[in-house]
Amino acid sequence: MVSTLKIITLGDEALRQKAAPVKEIRPLYREIAEQMINLMVEGGGVGLAGPQVGFMERIFVAKHAGEPPRIFINPSIIATSEDRVKHEEGCLSLPGVWADVIRPKTLTVQAWNERGRPFTLEASGILGRIIQHECDHLNGILFIDHLSELKRKRIIMHYEKLRKRRR
After folding, report:
1. What φ, ψ does residue 159 adopt, rounded to 5°?
2. Are residues 58 and 110 in contact, defined by beta-carbon separation less than 8 angstroms?
3. pTM for the whole thing?
């Protein structure tokens, strides 16, 4: 049994570290993924990566458009389109903060599911964006890192004001 997970927020150094590859898919990962899915849904999010809950292995969950949640273990984006699109993003680790981010329009990802089965998925639209956002988390990258320095600083200042109000 894994201890109860919670979402960590900007300022926690785990968000800036690279997650380690999963060496062997064990039942523990299903339990962790279930907790992550529950946290994601409770927080109103569409994706959640291991580092966002202090679990420093390469796993993330995603839920999009009425589909059942998906679990990605050791994901690797193997192709992206040259076409780029701008879309607003937020993050459960930066609650209340949103910004337009430019990312590839489509991608192909390879990963393993919770049963240890490999899969390849081509994704675009919101699901493609979720996958890119969560893969970034596995590499210690936040969506605000895709912004100009000025925009990033403004967003961090806004986030800090929001955080102080919540206390």
Report:
1. -60, -45
2. no
3. 0.95
Task: Say if CB 107 and CB 122 are below 8 A apart.
Answer: yes
Distance of CA 128 to the CA centre of its chain: 12
| Cα–Cα distance for residue pair 132/48, rounded to 1 Å | 12
Which tokens in the block code for residue 12?
């926690």
Distance, CA of 100 to CA of 21 (rounded, Å) = 30
- Position 65 scores a pLDDT of 84
The residues, any chain, with a CB within 8 Å of residue 155's CB and separated by 6 or more, are 94, 97, 99, 144, 147
Q: Which two tokens stand for residue 7?
A: 């979402």
Q: Quick one: average pLDDT of 68-83?
A: 97
Give the pLDDT mean for 39-57: 97
DSSP of 111-130, one letter per residue?
A: EE-TTS-EEEEEEEHHHHHH
Report how far apart, in Å, the C-alpha atoms of 138 and of each of 17, 54, 106 are: 8, 11, 19
**Pairing mode, strands 59-62 and 118-124:** unpaired
Q: Can you list the domains of the chain with their CATH numbers?
A: 13-166 (3.90.45.10)
Listed in sequence order, the residues at least 6 apart from 75 whose beta carbon sits closer than 8 Å to its beta carbon are: 58, 60, 109, 110, 111, 131, 134, 135, 138
- Residues tagged active-site: 134
pLDDT of residue 40: 97
Tell me, rounded to whole angstroms, the distance of Cα 58 from its chain centroid: 11
Enclosing H/E stretch for 108: strand 106-112
